[in-house]
Every structure is written in structure tokens, then in C-alpha cells.
Amino acid sequence: MALSEALLPEFDQEMANTRKTLERVPDGKFDWKPHEKSCSISWLAGHIASIAGWTVETTDMDIFDMAPNGVMMQPPPPPKTRKELLEQFDRDVAKAGKALAGASDAHLLKDWSSKNNGQVLFSMPRIACLRTWVMNHNIHHRAQLGLYLRLNNIPVPAIYGPSADEGSM
To answer: ∠ CA 66-69-71 to the nearest 5 degrees?
Structure first.
């Protein structure tokens, strides 16, 4: 079995779980944050929605420089509505799925590097980057968003098993 064939079902499952969580983000709470040092729901949800899109950069480029020529790339503006959030997420997930499906084993095993103003931050096989910086990173922030939902009395979706709000999947 090809690496992409093994990775795609997990990717699809995690993205479906992520969408279930993003669907719960309330339009009226986009500025809410649990602590002064925390990010807002809008920033966190927007970050989560954009992570799937990193799949395309990881599969299409060998190097990604966050600050080419010393100029930090600007993140996209945070979404203003749940509808906008879900549209971005769905668009990026579709592109990511196509990028993964078209990647050969040799390509996925080739090193990929993240740089900041030309300085290498890390290099690892592309498949490891996809697992770590796309899927695991998504799961980490999705869990944070679940806590944000809980603190706002918004039902937390069942992900890997029942939640306190959803007794079964």
C-alpha cells in the first residue's frame, strides 16, 4: 500500500472530526478568549481552519520560508463568521486531499524544510511533517477549541468516543 493511501483515511477522519468542532463555533463569540494571554475563538478557529491548507505547501514545495528576505509572511485575516470559517476549511481540505492523493512514496519520504529568513528551523521527511505539523497540530488545537466550547456551555462533539454532551458517536 502506498503511503498516501495509508495516510488519507486518517486525514479524512481527522478533518471530519475537526469540521464537527468548527461547526460549533458561535458567531456571537468570535472575540471571546478564556484568559488575557489566550487567543480569541476567532483566531484559534481560523488557525485550525487553515492548517489543512499547509498540506499543499508541504507537498508542493521542498522549503517553506516564513520570512523570506526578512519580511514575515502575514497570516490571513481571521474569519468573521462561522460560514466563512467553514468555507475556508472545506476549500483547504479538498485541496489537501488532492495533494495527498497525488503524492508518491518517494516524494513523501523526501526531506522538507521550514525556514525563517533563510535559516533552517527544521528539516524532516515530508510525511513526518504532514503527520506532525498538519495532523497532530490540528488535533492539538482542536482540543483547545473543545475547551473553549465547554467554557461557553456549547456542546462539545464526540470525537474519539462519547463526550459529556454526546453520549454516543
So the answer is: 60
- Residue 62 corresponds to which cell in the numbers above? 521542498
Task: Report helix angle 137-151 to 3-22, nearest 10.
Answer: 20
In the three-class reduction of DSSP (H, G, I as helix; E, B as strand; rest coil), residue 38 is classed as coil
Q: Where are the domains of the chain?
A: 14-20+39-151
pLDDT digits (tens, 9 = 90+) for 120-156: 999 999 999 999 999 999 999 999 999 999 999 999 9
DSSP-derived pairing of the beta strands 63-65 and 111-116: parallel
Three cell numbers, residue 156: 462539545
Instruction: Read off φ and ψ for residue 89, nearest 5 degrees.
Output: -60, -50
Q: How many CB atoms lie within 10 A of CB 1?
A: 6
Does the domain spanning 14-20+39-151 belong to CATH 1.20.120? Answer: yes
What is d(CA 160, CA 99) in angstroms, rounded to the nearest whole number? Answer: 26
pLDDT digits (tens, 9 = 90+) for 98-111: 999 999 999 999 99
pTM score, whole prediction: 0.93
Strands 111-116 and 119-125: antiparallel
